[in-house]
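Re: [ENG-882] Designed sequences occasionally contain unexpected residues at chain ends

Forwarding the minimal case from QA. Structure tokens:
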């Protein structure tokens, strides 16, 4: 029992570090958010941070992993079942992607990560793994199921996945850029659904 309690406390502290670090990174950037600031905001000694993370970069990479994570929080068999119905698969994926896009708690971090992509190889590798590869893999598996069920025209499912997600990513980037200059993003709020409708009409049989 005590061991289980210690594990819960440790995991709770680790989660709090990530939550606080996300806020501080978004406010001060990677360089400005020191381990000392993170520890102070969490309410622990700076040395205690190293019980959970090796250094600041490891914390930042963990935060980035959460931001880049695939929005499709479904198991493989659930994805296949949904894909067998065609358009609902695209609607589900897009809805979750849209929620991430308009989540203000992720907005500043996404902006920061776009900057860090050009400066940090580890971030680039994580972006390719967590965001690019996993999303493309899940989408291509879904499109392959649709092709097998004669719902869409046969072709390269990975290429179709690229075509589908590229527009979603561009809309997300556009939202970020508009908000950076404090412009309204209302006109983009329906673009996700319009993209699904347009894309589905272009590939369905």
């Amino acid at each position: 029992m005590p061991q289980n309690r210690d594990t819960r406390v440790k995991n709770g502290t680790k989660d709090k570090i990530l939550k606080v670090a996300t806020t501080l990174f978004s406010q001060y950037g990677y360089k400005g958010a020191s381990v000392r600031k993170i520890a102070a905001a969490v309410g622990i000694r700076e040395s205690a941070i190293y019980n959970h993370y090796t250094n600041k970069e490891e914390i930042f990479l963990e935060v980035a992993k959460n931001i880049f994570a695939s929005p499709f929080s479904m198991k493989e068999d659930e994805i296949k079942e949904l894909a067998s119905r065609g358009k609902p698969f695209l609607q589900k994926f897009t809805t979750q992607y849209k929620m991430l896009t308009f989540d203000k708690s992720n907005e500043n971090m996404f902006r920061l990560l776009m900057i860090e992509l050009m400066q940090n190889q580890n971030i680039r590798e994580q972006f390719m793994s967590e965001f690019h590869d996993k999303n493309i893999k899940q989408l291509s598996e879904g499109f392959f199921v649709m092709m097998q069920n004669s719902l869409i025209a046969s072709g390269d499912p990975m290429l179709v996945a690229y075509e589908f997600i590229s527009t979603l990513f561009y809309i997300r980037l556009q939202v970020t850029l508009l908000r950076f200059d404090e412009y309204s993003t209302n006109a983009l709020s329906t673009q996700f659904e319009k993209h699904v409708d347009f894309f589905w009409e272009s590939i369905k049989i």
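QA comment: On inspection the terminal residues look reasonable. The radius of gyration is 20 Å. Proposing we downgrade this to a documentation issue.
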